[in-house]
Amino acid sequence: MADIIQLLPDHVANQIAAGEVVQRPASVVKELLENAIDAQASLVKLIVKDAGKTLIQVIDDGKGMSTTDARLSFERHATSKIKSAEDLFRLNTKGFRGEALASIAAIAHVELKTKQEQTELGTQIEIEGSVVKSQDVIVTPKGTSIAVKHLFFNIPARRNFLKSNTVELRHIIDEFHRVALAHPDITFVMFHNGSESFNLPKSNYRQRVVNIFGNKTNEKLVPVEEETEVLKISGFVAKPEFARKTKTEQFFFVNNRFIKSAYLNHAINAAFDGLLKEGSYPSYFLNLSVDPKTIDINIHPTKTEIKFDDEHTLYAILRSSVKHSLGQFNIAPVLDFEHDQNLDTPYSYREKTISNPTVEVDRTFNPFQEEKTNVKARGISTTYKRDTAEWESLYVGLESKSTKSHHDFSEIEVESEPETGLLFSDDNSNKVSQTTYQLHNKYIISTIKSGMLIIDQHRAHQRILYEGLLKYTTIKEAVSQQLLFPLVLEFSCSEMKLLGQLKEDLEHTGFVFSAFKASAIEITGVPANVPESEVSIILEQLINDVEQEVPDSNFSATDLLAKSLSKSLAVKTGQSLTIMEQEHLVNSLFACKEPSVSPTNKVTFITMSVDDFDKKFM
Ligand code: ADP
Ligand code: MG
Q1: Ligand 1 pocket mutation, candidates 73, 112, 117, 123, criterion most atoms within 8 A of CB
Q2: Amino acid 299: pLDDT
Q3: What is the architecture, at CATH level 2, of domain 438-606?
Q4: Measured from the CB, is residue 74 less than 6 Å from ligand 1?
Q5: Do the beta carbons of residue 113 and residue 32 sit within 8 Å?
């Protein structure tokens, strides 16, 4: 059979590429504006007729092109911006694919005029559908003017696909805004159908935002500034009361390039958590600067999505700096627990009379006695002394004193057996026999009426501690254990900042701070269930958790604290438990509001019915 593969002619390849690069007039606007910026223009004029369907022209006063370059610029993969693949990782230009002009010229009539500073005369080139119609020497000012007419003249399907002028113009203006916001140091002017739509003189960032979005914007803006090793943030968020019903005022720029990132957007939403009405979106205009090596902007042809090396860290920094700004400007009730909707906990503790916190002194404490703890940095692995008293102490302060909370198995409701509410079958509970069994120091197995209950000990204990901690931070009635000697712990500046934000919350769990200095804290009391030897690790873990906190729409400091502490304090997998401890754990778990999941939403127990077993034995 004859060979059938052939190379596509350039103009066809260009048309195909154009499909990716040029979706609508606004795409042309974006490419031309970006080229002007890459050419170091200080003044950029955009002229549009009929929402770009008739004309899109960009005139700049940038460095212009030589005659040869002018001709070459329309070739595919013709770019002056990168020379090798490595250059992709140190990009500081908008373009780099060398595709835009070739694509645009493939599907429109293009007229280019350009002149470099040092030359007397410039070059004019006319191209229609990739075919060069004319090339002349002309008199023209320094810089470049590219006029794109009759877009999609040779692709009627595309042309018909265009939306109304209103819609297409909206897209053009969006692109214009994005580029103008990323470059306040450049003057931008835009004309539509002969009249000036925008005149944005070179200015600072705040003025640029105000010039685009109107004078009223000024009072809405709260500055956000942050500089860390990996990320520099500058820009503004709008105060929560000015949040909008649409997402039209949400702008992220990474290294002066407009990007879309649902993930980073989430970080902002998280920072605004609890401050916005349902269905409203925060406005933000934020510039992020990162090392170009740590991003990959090459994953999307029109380059509004980029890939970050360490998105999690960016997320955490972004959220905390926005939160910080909102807090600084007295917008966020950062430490105002009463009004945090997350704290409208389901616990009916409001009727309870408030009693003063009591301080318990550990009289048996001997500072010279060797602690039986074995602590690895950050990851916490502790060998507890195995006696019941110590186990019970894990619950001190977490158990409700009201009689109603004295749970036993008979009060537990299990979904599969709603009629009786009895978890353990009668014949079992009458015996004094063992009702629980620990499997591999990891699971607690128990028989229930319908079959078998398997509990993950670590997750279950997390749930128990979490609900206890939430209760106590909400009603501010935690039991504290006074330390014999104050404990001094040192932290970095940024860690201290975080701890400062959590201070009040920590106090509600039972921590007592005698000093909160610039780089150290002095602790004189700790929650009753926290061994002194673990305090520093628990706080480190807490800081780590706050820093690493990933998307969770229900973020609140109290909640995070409770989650982190419960994780640190819960019995670990691998820890053997006495029968009494096992039973206590099962009882306490089912006394929880939400026994079935851990604070991080992982399943705490499963049941296997006798039927399930029967099936397996068939
Ligand atoms: P890219 O921007 O990806 O390099 P383009 O097709 O947009 O590819 O442009 C091709 C080349 O044409 C650019 O690399 C640049 O050298 C030149 N060029 C395009 N527009 C301008 C302009 N306004 N001023 C100066 N040079 C330009
Ligand atoms: Mg370009």
Answers
A1: 73
A2: 55
A3: 2-Layer Sandwich (3.30)
A4: no
A5: no
- Within 8 A by CB and 6+ apart from 374, the residues are 381, 382, 383
Starting from the edge strand earliest in sequence, which strands make up the sheet with 257-259, in order? 221-227, 232-238, 284-289, 250-254, 257-259
- Quick one: which of 256, 310, 309 has its CA closest to 286? 256
Q: Report domain 205-328's class.
A: alpha beta
Quick check: 503 and 542 in contact, CB under 8 A? no
- Check pocket membership of 62 for ligand 1, CB cut-off 6 A: yes
How distant, in Å, are the alpha carbons of 437, 575, 587 from that of 578? 9, 10, 14
Q: Could you report the per-residue pLDDT of 4-52, keeping only the tens digit for each?
A: 777 777 777 777 777 777 889 999 999 999 999 999 999 999 999 999 9
Q: What is the pLDDT of residue 19?
A: 72
Radius of gyration of the chain (CA): 33
Among protein residues, the one whose CA lies closest to atom 12 of ligand 1: 73
Q: Is pLDDT at 200 greater than 80 in this prediction?
A: yes
Q: Which of 14, 22, 31, 35 to mutate to test the pocket of ligand 1 (most atoms within 8 A of CB)?
A: 35
Confidence of residue 357 (pLDDT cuts 50, 70, 90): low
Can you give the pLDDT at residue 20?
Answer: 72
Given a cut of 50, is residue 414 above it in pLDDT? no
Task: Indicate whether residue 79 lines ligand 1 (CB < 6 A).
Answer: yes
pLDDT confidence of 301, banded at 50, 70, 90?
Answer: low
CATH 3.30.1370.100 domain locations along the chain = 438-606
Give the class (CATH, top level) of 10-200: alpha beta
Please count the residues of the chain. 618
Query: How far from 296 is each of 38, 260, 291, 350, 406, CA to CA, in Å?
Result: 19, 13, 11, 52, 58
Q: Where in the chain is the domain with CATH 3.30.230.10?
A: 205-328
pLDDT tens digit sequence for 489-500: 888 777 787 888
Q: Tell how far the Cα of 72 is from the centroid of ligand 1, in angstroms.
A: 10
101 lines ligand 1 (CB under 6 A): yes
419 or 483, which is more confident? 483
